[in-house]
Amino acid sequence: MADKILYTTSAVNTGARAGESHTPDRSYEVNIDVPKEMGGKGEGTDPEQLFALGYSACFHSALDHFKKEDKVKNKSQVTLTVHLVEDPTDGGFKLKTEIEVGIENMSEDEVLSLAERAHEFCPYSKATKGNIESTVTVVPYEEGK
C-alpha cells in the first residue's frame, strides 16, 4: 500500500553554505552563511540552525499531541540543540542532537514520559532514528525562554 501524502514542500538553495535558501513561492527566504566557529563570516543562518528550528517545532507538536491525550494543559518548551561533529569514519561530518523538554509544574518522571512518547511519534525523530545520536532530557520549565 502506498503512503498517503498529506503535505509536500520543497526548498531551493543557491551558493551552498554561503548563499541563499528559499521556498519556491518565496514566502520564506534566508541568507545562509558559514558560522564564525567554522571560519565563516557568520552573517546568516546555517543549515544546522534551520534543522534545529524545524525539529524543535515538530517535536513540540508531538509533545502537545500527548499532552492533549493526557489532558495536560501546563505550558511547555522544547530546546533542540544540533551539534555538527567530525565523522571519523569518512573524514566528513555528522550531526548529534540534544532535546531538552520542560513542562511547568510537572515532575521529572511525568515530563520524561511525555517526552519519550513524543520522541517515538515525532516525524523528525523517526527520520533520524539510528542515523543521528540523540538524547532527550528533562529541564526546568522557564517562562519566556
From TrEMBL:
InterPro entries reported in the protein's UniProt record: KH_dom-like_a/b, OHR, OsmC/Ohr_fam, OsmC/Ohrsf
Database matches in Gene3D superfamilies: 2.20.25.10, 3.30.300.20
PANTHER family per UniProt: ORGANIC HYDROPEROXIDE RESISTANCE PROTEIN-LIKE
Entry similarity comment: Belongs to the OsmC/Ohr family.
Name of the protein this chain belongs to: Organic hydroperoxide resistance protein
The species this protein was found in: Alkalibacterium iburiense
